[in-house]
Amino acid sequence: MYATFWALVPPLIAIVLALITKEAYSSLFIGIVVGGLFFAGGNFEGTMNHIFKDGLIAQLSDPYNVGILIFLVFLGIMVCLMNKGGGSAAFGKWASTHVKTKVGAGLATIVLGCLIFIDDYFNCLTVGSVMRPVTDRTKISRSKLAYLIDSTAAPICIIAPISSWAAAVAGFAPEGTNGLTLFIQAIPYNYYALLTIVMMLCLTLFKMDYGPMAVHEANAEKGDLFTVPGKEYKEEEAPKGKGKVIDLVLPIILLIVGCVLGMLYSGGFFEGTSFGEAFANSDASVGLVLGSFGALVLTLVIYLLRRVLPFKDCMACIVEGFKAMVPAITILALAWTLKGMTDSLGAAEYVAGLVDKSASSLLNFLPAVVFVIACFLAFATGTSWGTFGILIPITLKVFSLGDGSPLGLICVSACMAGAVCGDHCSPISDTTIMSSAGAQCDHIAHVSTQLPYALTVAGVSFITYLIAGFVQNAVVSLLIGTVMMVALFFFLHYSLGKKTARS
Length: 503
Hints:
By secondary structure, the protein is an all-alpha fold. It is about 75% helix and about 0% strand. It is globular, with a radius of gyration of 22 Å.
């Protein structure tokens, strides 16, 4: 079964079960068990060893993964502090006097998501905690909030030169290639990310929804923000502190500054490395942990000095913040383990073979082919970064960046765009999981409502990459893609409007 289609079966089983049962934990675990059975050839002892020793334990002892989990815990504690101290409530009251419509709340969420481009995990939880009171008050469903968060996480990070994603892509560039330069040159060709921004703006400005999201938004107008029975989040407790807006804004600024400095430090900036190289060489896991810990300590000191919260309540937030992150940590641990099962079955080698076979005969079609393969691989494995690591080196072996043809650059960007698209659609993606956690939305509800929107943008992006393979001009292709996106949106808007009028 190694390096065959069977390598992709375990994650596909997990995804199908999650969409059918609406339950993520058991679906992920069943996928893991199937992967273990495939790897061990049905042997019971081998299966158990592979699931737990080579899988779960190995993933939870990986330094990078542990760093991400610690970062999530620190973020959870900070969110708890801001809520209990009254900073979030104060911001909600302030926003209610300035943001009074659904359009305003949606645009504010998009703008904030675009501004927090350092890291997708940081984006998801921060935007969610800040905007929940505002979107709740303007009757935007939690599923719609989760979609806006998810769409300003990975799609924004993948076109932001100063981000953990830029550092990851730069790290996958082959020897002799300036990874950060490659990343920046690929941004104009990243059609999925750019068209996702167009999609969000159209949905928000024209107040139109379709698919399952339309049901969630209609229910939100009636007061039901969740739609899924039994999956509602409890009302947050009234704040114990008398915090002001500054008690929300200042911790977020400290987080942003701390995370930037942490990533620069992990890349050797303070040892003489240039700014660009430091970001390219940074360890996002270490940088985010250092930055978030520094921000957490400073927030605690500020809260105590300003008497926003007493010391006892500040310490209680440590436990409560950890508890709030347990569901997200559990799903992440299972998703990472499932990815480990997929890796051990040779999914990367199987996909690499597919790309290699198609490269010689489909040169001008290759950007679209790479986009589809990257979508499928990221969807099945739940990881964008793993997809970068598999496809970018293969793409750069097929094309030389110095031969004067932009096809290689277009294909690298198609790989990045497809990876983000697959990640955006996948229920086992860590970014999708974090978006659900940030919006405090049922995870499967988020996936099912987001999927039609993501697939709409994916379809237009695929056609745009077909055009780009022949036109080989970033601006012309993007303009055509944007026109197609807006035209399709107006078609849907007109069609759904007529349908509603008839009913």
